[in-house]
Amino acid sequence: MGRQLPDRFDVKAKFSSHVQGVAVDTTAGCFYLSFTTSLVKTDYEGNVLARVDSINGHLGAMTFDPSRRKLYASLECKDDEIGRGIARKLDKAAYTLAETRFYIVVFDVDRLGDKNPEQAMQKYEVSEAILDYKTKYGCSGIDGVAIAPQIGKKNGKPCLYVAYGIYSDTSRRDNDHQVLLEYSLDRFSRAGGSPKISRKLFVFTGNTTWGIQNMCYDCKTGCIFMAAYAGKKPEYPNFTLFAVPVNQKPVKKALRGLEADGSHLSLALWQKGLVSSTKGLRGWYFPQASTGFCTVGNGTWFVSVPKKLRSKTQTATVRRYVWTEKSSDSWLVLPAE
Q1: For the domain that residue 255 is a member of, what is the CATH number?
Q2: Domain count, the chain
Q3: Does the pTM of the predicted model rise above 0.85?
Q4: What is the pLDDT of residue 11?
């Protein structure tokens, strides 16, 4: 892995919004972090190596592919309160409903230091989410992204999984599942466009606030981990972290709250972690992961959390964690613990 990975560092830069995601590049010895309208590349001490600013939209979670040297991030350009707030900060016109779009942005990380780093960006439209926005499943757009072996396939090829954002709404029943779009990574080798999804998958978690904020595949456990802000429905435990094993075959069946839509491809949660009174619903309380987490695959994880500055701006602290299965209520601990 080259240089020794850090235990902790603060990003030595200021941003108008909080951190949204983090990825580590052990080959280049650096980290990538998103701050809503900015992407930043830092060394292991948090010094800025490159940045892309004034991205007119909500740049959220990210995932890194070391073999392709590409960084994949979610981008929302939408007409809701979040979109309007971003437009005000950038002094730009807000998006209308007709202009609302969701994208996967692919960054060529080795070009981020160029004089025009924006040229390192390529956008791909997530048309499925645009169709579902505000009408089905409580869809508010997209956020969490992760690269993982294709679920249910032996020696599955790497796929990109994109999670819907889900509005928090205690009055509706169709928003208690997380929705994952599955794409072949090869779909993102062309120049732009609207790649076709391979499958649309549903995971029962109970309602969350804004859906899956961050996702990460961990080869040590064979699971895709999904971090969320806690939901508000009192009938659920409202965990903030869930895991989905990739070695399971999706099951097509009618789902609670979605009976009127017929059958859907469903995935089961990993049966580790805290037990709930709802059958099959397992998870943890680890809210730190909601603003960024990633793994290097050997039990070492990194978590990014917001850090407010006196100037009313934001930066982030990135800390190293290690995997543990010593108890059901914890999954990551600081090395000193």
Answers
A1: 2.115.10
A2: 1
A3: yes
A4: 98
